[in-house]
Amino acid sequence: MTTLWKQLTALALGLAAWPLMAAAASMGGGKDPILIGVQACAACHDGPARGRQFSKWRLSAHAQAYAALALPESREIARLSGITEEPHKAKMCLGCHAAGAEAEDWEKAGGFHLEDGLQCEVCHGAGSEYAPEDIMKDKMQAMMRGLKMPTKDDCLTCHRAKGSHDAVLRTKPFALDAAWLAIAHPKPGPPASETQPPALPASPFKFTGVMACAKCHTGSPFNFQFSQWRRSRHAQAYAVLATPRALEIAREVGVKGDPQSLPQCLECHVTANQDGADSRLPGYDARDGVQCEACHGPGSDYSPEAVMLDQSAARAKGLREVNAQTCQPCHQKAHGKQFDYDLAVKRIAHPTQAPSVAVSEPAYKNPLNLALTPDGKELWVTCEASASVVVVDTAARQKLLEIPVGGQPNDVCFTPDGRKAFVSNRLDDTVSVVDVATRKVMGTVAVGDEPHGVLVDQQGRYLYVLNTATDSVSVLDVATLQEVKRLSASRSPWSLAQSPDGESILVTHALSRFVPDRTPSLSEVTVIDAGRVVVEDRLVVKAANLLQGVAWHPSGEFAVITLLRTKNLVPMTRINHGWTISNGLGVLWRDGTIDQVLLDRNDLCFPDPSDVCLTPDGKYALVTSSSSDQVAVVDLARLIALLKAAPPSERARVLPNHLGKSVEYVVARIPTPTCPKGIVCSADSATAYVANMLDDSVTVLDLTKLEAAGRVDLGGSKELTIRRRGEKLFHSANISFRRQFSCSTCHPDGHIDNLVYDIEDDGIGMGPIDNRTLRGINDMAPYKWIGINPSLKRQCGPRLAVFITRIQPFSPEQLTDLHYYLCSIPRPPNRYRKLGEDLTEAQRRGKALYERSHKNNGQPIPVNNRCVTCHPPPLYTDGHVHNVGTKFAYDRDGKFDAPQLQNIYDSAPYLHNGIAPTLEEIWTTYNPYDEHGVTNDMTKDQLNDLIEFLKTI
Amino acid sequence: MNPPGLFSRPASRFARLLALAAPGLLAAPADPPAADPGLPYVYTKWEQITTQDGLPNDHIFAVRADPRGDCVWIGSEGGLSRYDKQTKTIKNWTEQDGLPWRVITGIEVNPRTGEVWLGLFGGGLARFSAGRFDHFHQLNSGLVNDVVYAVAIEGDNVWCATTAGASRYNTKKDKWDIYTEQNAPMEEIWNYNVCARDGQVHLAVWGSGILEFDTATEHWKIYTDPDGEMEIDLYRDDGVPHVITTGASYVDKILWMSSYFGCARYDGRHWRGYFDHECGLPSNFNNNLKARSGQECWYCTDKGLGACMDAETCTWVTYIPDGKNHTGKAIIKRENQVLKVVDTGYNVPQIFQICVDFDGNDVWAGTSKGLGHGIGEGYYPRLRPASAGVAQTTAK
Asked: Cβ–Cβ of B142/A944 closer than 8 Å?
């Protein structure tokens, strides 16, 4: 039959099977199918009578898909996707490179191996229920029990264009039709009896098979030994006997029959073929070709770890030394090919330890925040990129040493006695406890998600940790390091400061509270009563967002915070005169009133005010602008005098928007190296220290002269990689007119600012859209909510310049750099389900709902209206636009790009216009006609289960 | 009045028969007269707080003394109120102030964080913290139903008794669990009340008795009426007197429960039923209850506030107001015997009791006509000898 005819037949069979499947589903019963693994399929689906289907697969790239994750290219692709795990342990990579990546243990039979890569069941469905021969013979029956006949569209779930892969592999675009033909594995005729290899005498030790070896000899600890073998010709030795060339060679040497069953061929092409069946343990599969034990000897007795660790014991139990004598018996008769042992052994070398090579990848520090030891002698600086804390001698102004801590350290603080330091690690969700004297990490404490600011109260009783991703504050007893309570904060708590009298702790927040549609932001400063350790007040800063730095005036009369005033409710038609974003400070008075003032000038802005510190003498406020590389020095006396002199109406309405006032209180703007973030001041008010994130340095400011007095090199690489250049562009406001904002302004930490913007390109007042996260953005084309941008480069190219930055666009080189950086923004791990973890009961039920094909009453759900259709794993987006019934009056079109769902719990609000603050509301409020999946028949607990599953993606 | 002794308690049938059949056995040798166990504390000093004092509404559905001891939270049909004990002033929050729903049926205060959790009758659940209301309802969260009768706090979890099951919200993990007949031994799912203490959570389920959830094992146990759904208690002390339950309170490993057809106490082995015809319970129709200890529990009935002050001797104090004349009395009973009637003056504002809470030695009672505050000067638990000068009889 022609391929097209076969496809049509398959389609017809599939359609015809639908009512049967529906009937079967509605009848219920039957077991949940589980994965049985390719070895089980190969028991029947090989040999000439079956079109050598297994061998064809084994020679294909699908069979090496898992092993390919060990290649350096895979690591680069992972880095380019912001994936922080190793590729062979990353859900995102395994989703396309292996079967059953997200399956639970119970869903995999004993003979299933993840290491077999993309196996039959990826395309044909989990086979436990249809694999028995009597079922398989009846296609209808088989399909009712889970057998799927894939179409070309199914291939595109994984084979869609991925920028990360294209950038590294530089392969030609995927040719679907050609690939479809290449993997075709039809069955040629009725089954014939297969020739069994002759039985031969047993050996003293038994063969375990390569998969037994792979249980240990895989992954980076063993230098990916299994993967190296799997990519080698040895692994294909049996499968290659199915090729036409093998038949030709057999004919040439006068051998008749199927090479895959001829002892003369199998002797060299299969391990242990000359040994009897008794010599092979269950799990051994001859189809794995020339396996480990062909060279190293049958492993039944030496493979246990206790034996393996002792070389002499292992040798006594059959571990063979490998030399030329091992290879030559087979390779000398290699069908006329010359065999160079020395060359060959280098080619297949698979040492346990990877050869050490000079680190070619430049390593940066990315200093973020800093703290002075109570005696002022040392400055500790958290370095996010190097997962360390750098200790600087303040007198010598030199780096002393570096202390490794957890992933992406963010902030550091000390106990009042200076003995302990606490470092928040936002990748690991932990706090490192460091002994200051020994410089050693004494322990690590788990806290909430993505911790940022840390502070020990003045009494040294409690450690406060801001859980930025879970909107809470962990309070830990310093002595026991036990979490004693968790206080409710607002959205994305960022940093904190205790009042001089010790009574209150203020907590700033990066994101506004959820507000009704098309209303101004309301950002919170939480006030914690430090005595009772409870929240005693919640100050609301109106029309402001990204409240980050906070510091108290020594008098205790007021505190100062950094803020942005983003006018997201007006269309972004211009950005001069503070149209879109203005930047400044908030003054929080003891009585709860709040003033807002700007640090921008009319002609030049002060973008991304990140941190503030007040000199202990109360004279100055020092504010870093991380996107314009400067520190503003604010004369507090002038500022307060200006505020007090202004009538209440002016304080409320004029000063927060007045671009001309900053000249009255900003007395200096001190240039710093790239991207100044945290800032602290010495106790004598004479010196300040600024962490320059993209310069890997600390600037020392002389506050008597109001100028930079020195630079402390923290030791990062001086080389500018493509990623580093892109990172600098991302954090620079030079990309926008009058330096008003940078990319990081709306995407702090590569994430969200919780605002909905009205961008001009689709019409003024039309289509306000929610700002989306950049984490994991690569490979998620198309871009824009309406899906019109096919690539990130298009997204950030001239269009960006015309409608957003309003300045000359990036040069092609800049765009390349920026693109690289955007793709590589690290994505945090999913906190609800790590790779390999079982689902909870609720998550499992939710997964079934996510994948369901029928409603509760048995009615089939159209394919196009199932969750898994538009959000298929592993990317959880099909890359198409869809109308899901969420068009609002001011939307031009009702079709929107299906967003990817990774870590969806972390990027509220939802839907294209951010109208749904919670996941539930997507369906309880905004899906009245079941256009966004069929959910109205669900019970409340079913919806809860679905959401529990969504959180695990 | 019969002296305390053989017939003063509803002794088992066997004991009675034995006593009747073999008086000789029991008569000799002669027992000395039983010592008077004493009298309970009686609240004689009361104040009433109503809309005239600033409450937004007199229908008081929930009252909770703040663990900090400085205020009392009041939930009514008109909003949330905070009574400052020092200044004796009331601050109210209504929907204009951000309260998500004006009818508050449940209040619980997290002793660690100070957050106030509110059950809203038709509005779901709210967290009130430092002036901010966070609203959880069935459309924006995993809460099973917006008709919330009561809330309880168990560690990091907030439990809600709703009309369509119970919800448990883990505030740390942001995870909701729903308990209905699908996964709990609920024969009905109308949850009237919830309490959490000492690792146990108890649900009072209308039509399904009392459900007990062990937080360590996450296993359920159900206490139903072994008599079936009979309106009378056919066999005494065999379990809860009726499955239409309205409250449970678990203290000192004693489970107290209330229903529309009587109340009971369970010590883990023995049940003891309480009915209005045989003890100080003012009425079998109970809206709510709160236990202070394993010996003391207060019941909110439609005919007054009944306090079992000493379970061992079945000594009760029943507070009955005369709302018309603004007077009131407290009746001290032991089993079915009235020991004393004390003139308390106007005590609870109204005879229809809805909720009660303890505040140190004080007691707060919510009624359909305002809040009563019993001031417990000289409070003592259980009983003291009558000679100690307790239970004043003089009118205020």
From this structure: yes
